[in-house]
């Protein structure tokens, strides 16, 4: 019988890995076989996951607490499961009681992956609806406009008063390119 290897992940630095670590140890994973990281599941650069997948060997069991800790989409999940299967490694998902060493476990894993992807799509749709509703109510999104008409006029006046560009930059706190853009707009009469 092979090794038990676990991958545990939380989405942000402020979150804690302790609960997942305890579950992995309770499932028989040696602490040195636990690969941990604090990265968003949507982040494709997950070095600890890559390292864990390289580490496992034929006959090993790869353990995660939940599917959403492992994959960011159904396609990602299926690619990881295929990689594990090709290496002769089974996947055990603790919280959902899934074990890919048998056909029922593989079927359940695919169904849960589909539901997870569906849930993510609904969440994204709600976010788009929320943003549209906020915009309808007058909420402004994005960075605050740096070059208002008043700021452009102020910069143009400073330049007419003989201030050097470096002095205008120091007084306004704007970058050099922004000051030149303002002067260009003042000269051409463009509105910000």
UniProtKB/TrEMBL annotation:
GO terms for molecular function: DNA binding; DNA strand exchange activity. Residues 3-138 form the Resolvase/invertase-type recombinase catalytic domain. CDD domains: SR_ResInv. The keyword DNA-binding applies. It comes from the Bacteria. GO terms for biological process: DNA integration. SUPFAM superfamilies: Resolvase-like. Keywords: DNA integration, DNA invertase, DNA recombination, DNA-binding. The active site is at 11 (o-(5'-phospho-dna)-serine intermediate). PANTHER family: DNA-INVERTASE FROM LAMBDOID PROPHAGE (PTHR30461), RESOLVASE HOMOLOG YNEB (PTHR30461:SF26). Belongs to the site-specific recombinase resolvase family. This is Recombinase family protein. It comes from Shinella zoogloeoides (Crabtreella saccharophila). The lineage of its organism: Bacteria, Pseudomonadati, Pseudomonadota, Alphaproteobacteria, Hyphomicrobiales.
């Amino acid at each position: 019988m092979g090794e038990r290897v676990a991958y545990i992940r939380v989405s942000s630095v402020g979150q804690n890995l302790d609960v997942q670590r305890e579950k992995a140890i309770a499932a028989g994973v040696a602490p040195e076989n636990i690969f941990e990281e604090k990265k968003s599941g949507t982040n494709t650069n997950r070095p600890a996951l890559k390292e864990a997948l390289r580490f496992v060997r034929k006959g090993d069991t790869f353990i995660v607490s939940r599917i959403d800790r492992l994959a960011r989409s159904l396609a990602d999940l299926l690619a990881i499961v295929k990689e594990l299967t090709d290496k002769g490694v089974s996947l055990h998902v603790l919280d959902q009681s899934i074990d890919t060493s048998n056909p029922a476990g593989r079927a359940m894993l695919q169904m849960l992956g589909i539901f997870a992807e569906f849930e993510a799509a609904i969440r994204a749709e709600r976010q788009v609806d929320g943003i549209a509703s906020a915009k309808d109510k007058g909420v402004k999104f994005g960075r605050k406009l740096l070059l208002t008409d008043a700021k452009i006029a102020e910069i143009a006046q400073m330049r007419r008063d003989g201030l050097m560009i470096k002095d205008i930059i120091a007084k306004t706190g704007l970058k050099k390119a922004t000051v030149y853009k303002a002067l260009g707009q003042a000269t051409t009469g463009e509105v910000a």
